[in-house]
Specification:
It contains 14 helices and 25 strands. It is an alpha+beta fold and 477 residues long. The protein folds into three domains: 260 residues, Bira Bifunctional Protein, Domain 2 (BirA Bifunctional Protein, domain 2, 2-Layer Sandwich); 99 residues, Anticodon-binding domain (Rossmann fold, 3-Layer(aba) Sandwich); 69 residues, C-terminal domain of ProRS (Translation Initiation Factor IF3). Helix 2 crosses helix 6. The radius of gyration is 25 Å and the shape is globular. The two termini are 26 Å apart.
Length: 477
């Protein structure tokens, strides 16, 4: 364990706060609750952005941008929405040295302003569906903040769609949930549980909310992405109507869905260890770092030249960096790149040049077990294969951890014990009041009602009433 990093077993929360800063992902802003995303952290976010954006466009969505400021009256048009967001709103009352005629809300989410615009743009069934996504920042006045996980201002994408029928809108909601799950598992190497949110946990103003829930290394849940079926609630509030094929005026059916910079925190807490970050190769800003090693000044030029040649050969295939920093020992560089979670390290010294090999070290496998010799002639073939092996290995490790920390319980006492170390899975038929009691007594919530259900019937773990659905319970960030 790095002697300057708190161990996860000692204090996971402290470990997280330290690693986010020591790995150069982010720093605290002078504005309370806000963060500065540093270049290394922002590049990781760009990788998330690019992989998601590619998926959105492949499913027919296009990007647009809507204003940061929203008239307060817009939020008040949808009663559940304004009630749900009121405690978190940042409100502008003055501008240009004068009091505004109407207060403006700094965007907490964009259903209202987009609903207003859709009402202008949609006239006929021929205008549907509208499939728009926006990449933006939002502001929610959080009382307790933590870098990436919960900040006053954060970056995200929010998709907003309008459809002619309920069935199409429901299909879109679930399609985007699948897109998020696919991204989380294939790119972030995070196993997630897709499911429906309970009534008390759903998005304010939605008919139904869906989520992908991930387990962090401390056993807590992180809501990693959400997709909402809004029904006709916002369409009626903002008068989004269209003439159908029979020339009858109908209200549109709408959805919204989002994933944020919280995903950076999810990657850190799912894969990181006591040495620092462990980044999935698909998202890592730097996939391979080359560290040149020499003892004599006379060896320096040849070793650096060999390192540059290896970088040039790999640069068209991978994101690769050659560490030419002066004044730092190879050991110091190893620790630094391990802290940053670079998946593969290539070591090149005079003997390697002589033998036409390079020493390769895997970040996910510590010590000698993770080291191997690769022939210089084979690096273009073997290095990408090793990165794919690492991607799969850290995913499988995360799956094994999650599955070993999910307990099937059939009593409330068992549930209380299970949520102290991970998730509980149990039959559930509770209402909003039951959920409030559960949260008050255990600090846990219904994380989701999984899409995949076992079938059959059981007894609610809290009330003992007949139940037809199994839910996942856990403490959450």
């Amino acid at each position: 364990m790095a002697d300057f990093l708190t161990s996860q077993s000692e204090d996971f929360s402290k470990w997280y706060n330290e690693i986010v800063q020591k790995a150069d992902l982010a720093d605290y802003s002078p504005v309370r609750g806000c963060m500065v995303i540093k270049p290394y952290g922002y590049t990781l976010w760009e990788r998330i952005h690019d992989e998601l954006d590619r998926r959105f466009k492949a499913t027919g969505h296009v990007n647009a941008y809507f204003p940061l400021f929203i008239p307060m009256s817009f939020l008040e048009k949808e009663s559940e929405h304004v009630e749900g967001f009121s405690p978190e709103l940042a409100v502008v009352t003055h501008g240009g040295g004068a009091e505004l005629e109407e207060p403006l809300v700094v965007r907490p989410t964009s259903e209202t302003i987009i609903g207003h615009m859709y009402a202008k743009w949609i006239q006929s069934y021929r205008d549907l569906p509208v499939l728009i996504n926006q990449w933006a920042n939002v502001v929610r006045w959080e009382l307790r903040t933590r870098l990436f996980l919960r900040t006053t201002e954060f970056l995200w994408q929010e998709g907003h769609t309008a459809h002619a029928t309920r069935a199409e809108a429901v299909e879109e909601t679930l399609r985007m949930l699948d897109v998020y799950a696919d991204f989380a598992m294939k790119e972030a190497a995070i196993p997630v549980l897709p499911g429906r949110k309970s009534e008390s946990e759903k998005f304010a103003g939605a008919v139904a909310s869906y989520t992908i829930e991930a387990m962090m290394k401390d056993g807590k849940a992180l809501q990693a992405g959400t997709s909402h079926f809004l029904g006709q609630n916002f369409a009626k509030a903002f008068d989004i109507q269209f003439l159908d094929e029979s020339n009858v005026l109908q209200y549109a059916w709408t959805t919204s869905w989002g994933m944020s910079t919280r995903m950076v925190g999810a990657v850190v807490m799912t894969h990181g260890d006591d040495q620092g970050l462990v980044l999935p190769p698909h998202l890592a800003p730097i996939q391979v770092v080359i560290v040149p090693i020499w003892r004599k000044d006379s060896e320096r030029a040849a070793v650096l030249d060999a390192g540059r040649q290896v970088k040039q050969r790999l640069a068209s295939l991978l994101r690769v960096e050659l560490d030419e920093r002066e004044g730092y020992s190879p050991g110091w560089k190893y620790n630094d790149w391990e802290m940053r979670g670079v998946p593969l390290r290539i070591e090149i010294g005079p003997r390697d040049i002589e033998n036409q090999n390079v020493m390769v070290a895997r970040r996910d496998t510590p010590g000698r077990e993770g080291k191997m010799l690769v022939p210089m002639s084979a690096i273009e073939a073997q290095i990408p294969e090793l990165l794919e092996a690492i991607q799969l290995a850290i995913y499988n490790k995360a799956v094994a951890f999650r599955d070993s920390h999910i307990a099937d319980v059939d009593s409330y006492e068992q549930l209380k014990h299970a949520v102290e170390v991970g998730f509980a899975r149990a039959w559930w038929a509770g209402n909003i009041e039951d959920e409030a009691r559960l949260k008050d007594e255990t600090k846990a919530t219904v994380r989701c009602i999984p899409i995949e259900q076992p079938g059959g019937k059981g007894r609610c773990v809290l009330t003992g009433e007949p139940a037809t659905e199994v839910a996942i319970f856990g403490k959450a960030y």
